[in-house]
Amino acid sequence: MIFNRYMFLILIIAFFGCNNASKKEVKKLISIDNDIYLPLPEIVEEPKDNISNAEKIRLGKLLFYDPILSGNKDVACVTCHHPNFGYAEPLDISIGVNGVGLGLKRKFKNPDSVNFVKRNANTILNTAYNGITIKGEYHAKNAPMFWDLREKGLEAQALIPIQTLEEMRGAIIGEDEILDVIIARLQSTPEYVELFEKAFLSENTINKKNLAKAIAAFERSLITPNSRFDKYVQGDENALSLAEKDGFNLFKKAKCNSCHSGPMFSDYKMHILSVDDNTKLDFLDTGIDSTYAFRTPSLRNLRYTAPYMHNGSLQDLQAVLEFYEDISNGNSKNVNVPVKNIDSLARQIQIKVMDMSFIISFLNSLNSEDFDKKIPENVPSGLTVGGDI
């Protein structure tokens, strides 16, 4: 065990030495109160078969904003993942097809048609790092996606909303047909033909695989490895206020870091909690294997991504901390989840009301304004940018 820790110490020093880190920075990166904390890497790992270039990222961004990817040509990826809301949205659960408006103003066009999206829209920011461990290790191809981990990698994730009835597909086109329809649309749009050829350096490159690769390349460019917390763990003692440092210590003391660990503050594992069901849904969302287990979300950029939890049932960070306080006191917030079924790590969390404001202050140090907020003036299809928003 001592040998392994020693070897890990040598590897960390060697790694950051190659990046011109000072000795003080290396010490800070290795240990804070005997816990290892690394900043987000500034260079993102990419799959070997999808190395980014400027043209591919530009293409992916246009596709992200273009409602040509939806069955009814009225919804785009950005409809529910908008830069104004940190590439998430302020709704508890999304309204995809059959909707009009943006953010809190989004409503159903026809209440008797397609219903709500099943879960809260995760932010796209920093999904390039999904799965990163406390040692900073991750693999782009195996990056865990969605609240129930049903896909791995941004390339696999990118096509799922297009195929999902209530998200982008709609009821007119079948699930087995939608991607072929979308590809045909793109192939008949001259500007997309040119953009795909430039991005993939070949002719006749518009296909499902390259569609996914382009969107993933853009999403992989949306990173914020520059929060004040990142600066703090790199050695800048003044990057955090005294209240934020106190909050960081209380966050660890309460054992929040048992699940919210690593550079993304997530272990990317499934945990059974007892979040109350969202009554807007006409069914019970029981998570993976009907256990009410959902993936640990990242704690980065929480300022922009309220409301919280898999179904957006908790409106602010105070409500989230109070939820965990209830669990620690032996209470379940969901009648379908017995206390004994709640994850033991969650039941061990000890949060005091007097500490909550400090912990929230610390969580705000994980926010960053430095991400792409520029919205394209138009998209190659000629449709309304972002769909009916």
Structural class: mainly alpha
CATH hierarchy: architecture of the largest domain: Orthogonal Bundle
Percent of residues in helices comes to 25-40%
Distance between the termini: 56 Å
Feature tags:
single chain, 389 residues, mainly alpha, Cytochrome Bc1 Complex, Chain D, domain 2, 14 helices, 6 strands
In a nutshell, what does this entry contain?
This protein is 34% helix and 4% strand. The protein is mainly alpha-helical.
Question: In words, what does this structure look like?
Answer:
This protein has 389 residues and is mainly alpha-helical. Helices cover 34% and strands 4% of the residues. The protein has three domains: 1-30, no CATH class; 54-220, Cytochrome c-like domain (Cytochrome Bc1 Complex, Chain D, domain 2); 227-364, Cytochrome Bc1 Complex, Chain D, domain 2, CATH 1.10.760. The protein has a two-stranded antiparallel sheet with strand order 1-2. Strand 3 (144-145) and strand 4 form a beta hairpin. Helix 1 (2-18) crosses helix 2 and helix 3 runs antiparallel to helix 8 (190-200). It starts with a helix and ends in a 25-residue tail after the last helix. The model is unreliable at 1-32 (pLDDT under 50).
Can you lay out the helices and strands and say which pair or pack?
Blueprint: H1 2-18, H2 23-30, H3 54-65, H4 77-80, E1 99-100, E2 107-108, E3 144-145, E4 151-152, H5 154-163, H6 165-169, H7 178-187, H8 190-200, H9 208-220, H10 228-233, H11 242-253, E5 270-272, E6 293-295, H12 317-328, H13 344-347, H14 356-364
Antiparallel strand pairs: 1-2, 3-4, 5-6
Helix pairs in contact: 1-2, 3-8, 3-9, 5-9, 11-14
